[in-house]
Every structure is written in structure tokens, then in C-alpha cells.
């Protein structure tokens, strides 16, 4: 398919160049007619393959584009997850809850990313002395639900 398009473009460019170089006259008319005939042959060249049945519709729509789109969706959703994890961590640090590791599990292969669960590792937890006495799990749950936009399963690892 691409070779066919390239051959049409090549013949067109060659005919334009020859048209610019040749002086007007009888010879130029004959050469223009020859290029017109060659252009017609190039355009109809795929027709015999269509008639013989060697033509496959799937060859036109290559599957590489679909794979590239899936890779793009994966990368975009992965970037969203990373940004969300960092945002949750920074929001918790603003509330005085530091050294928390947030990991989000989600279905990132779909266009609409679905967050399955949020893992919060509290093993290195440090509470800022200015925070006073706070309910850590409640504060984390509020931040996660606010930033995720929906209630999700939150797993606390201590």
C-alpha cells in the first residue's frame, strides 16, 4: 500500500520536473502524454491483485497502530498513577504524616483507568510534632478518597 502511494508520488514529481525542464512544443506534448499514461498504469497497478483474490483487507489496517495506541494508553495511565501517588504523599506530608510510601494498583490497560486499591506503607512513618494527636488511618483515608475521587480499598502495611 505504501509502495503504491510512493510510486504515485514519484511519478507525479518526476512529471512536474520534466514539465518544468522541457520547452513548450510538440515534444513536450508527447512526453506529457507518456507521463499521463504511466500515471494511469501506476494508479491501476493494484487492481490485478484485487481481482485474483490475493488482496487481504487486514493488510490495509495494520495491527501496529492498535499496539501503539495500547502502549500510549498504558504510558499515559502509568504517568497518571505516578503523579497521583506523589500527590497523595505530598498531601499527607502537609498533614504532618511523613515517610509514607503509597502504591496504587489499577487497571491501566483500559482507556478509563480503574483504581483497584491503594497500598500505604507505614513502616517508616514519622508524625510531625506540630500535628498533635491525629487518627492516622482516618487522615490517610480522607486524603486518598479526596484525591482519587472515589472510595477505594486502602491497605495499610505497618
From TrEMBL:
<keyword id="KW-0472">Membrane</keyword>
<keyword id="KW-0812">Transmembrane</keyword>
<protein>
    <submittedName>
        <fullName>Stage III sporulation protein AF</fullName>
    </submittedName>
</protein>
<dbReference type="Pfam" id="PF09581">
    <property type="entry name" value="Spore_III_AF"/>
</dbReference>
<dbReference type="InterPro" id="IPR014245">
    <property type="entry name" value="Spore_III_AF"/>
</dbReference>
<keyword id="KW-1133">Transmembrane helix</keyword>
<feature type="transmembrane region" description="Helical">
    <location>
        <begin position="34"/>
        <end position="51"/>
    </location>
</feature>
<feature type="transmembrane region" description="Helical">
    <location>
        <begin position="6"/>
        <end position="22"/>
    </location>
</feature>
